[in-house]
Amino acid sequence: MIALVVVLAVGLVAMGCVKADRVRGWRESFNPSAPDIPDSAFVAARVVLFGMAGVGVFTAFQFLDVVADAEWSDDELAGAVSQATEELDGTSRFGDIFGDDSGFDQEIAKMIEEEVVENGDGGAPQSGVDAGAAASNKPSDAEYTVTASGADAAFCVHVVRTRSKDGDYEPPGVAGGPSSVTVPEYDFAVTSREGEC
Question: What's the structural domain count of the chain?
Fold first, then answer.
């Protein structure tokens, strides 16, 4: 699309550069009895053609800006992963109230993806990040390969999840009595490095 707009703009400039005498000669060869075209008409036509070419070039730059904002660059991804790692390291989160760790991979992957997107700089897209879980992941020790659309780079994020019984939450039971449910809290130690896991 961008190439087509640029080609059209170049074509309009080329049309505007054709000399008036040459156009009069072509017109006379096709229709000898046609009235002569005044110089003011050629000036007006050039203004219109160059104006349309300028709009075309401006549109092409706008398309380039949109394409750049729709994809991640390697530098944007590197900065976002580094910042996300710093912000996630040392944090705590509550786990499943039933103590079931079956969905830990999806939860941690989503946590990483959201943090990377949040830490992308102003030109980075607000989507397109994927944290692929390693097959050997365990609830206490897991690795995720972080990639993003448009970026060739990949980063390995290592997450160690430790149960923090001091931070467990026990919601009040019925009528304010003790509860039989405990919501476990987990502490996260997060590191990252360049390359796939």
Answer: 2
- Per-residue pLDDT 10s for the chain (197 aa) are 677 877 888 888 888 888 888 887 888 888 888 788 888 888 888 888 889 888 888 887 777 665 555 688 899 999 999 999 999 999 998 887 666 677 888 999 999 999 999 998 777 787 889 999 999 999 999 999 999 998 999 999 999 999 887 877 777 777 766 677 778 889 999 999 999 99
Residues 62, 81 within the same domain: no
Could you list the residue range(s) of the whole structural domain that residue 30 is in?
Answer: 2-70
pTM: 0.63
10 and 50 in a single domain? The answer is yes
Whether 7 and 83 share a structural domain:
no
Residues pairing with 144 in the sheet = 133, 157
Cβ contacts of 151 within 8 Å, gap of 6 or more: 71, 72, 73, 74, 76, 77
Instruction: Give the number of other CB atoms < 10 A from CB of residue 122.
Output: 6
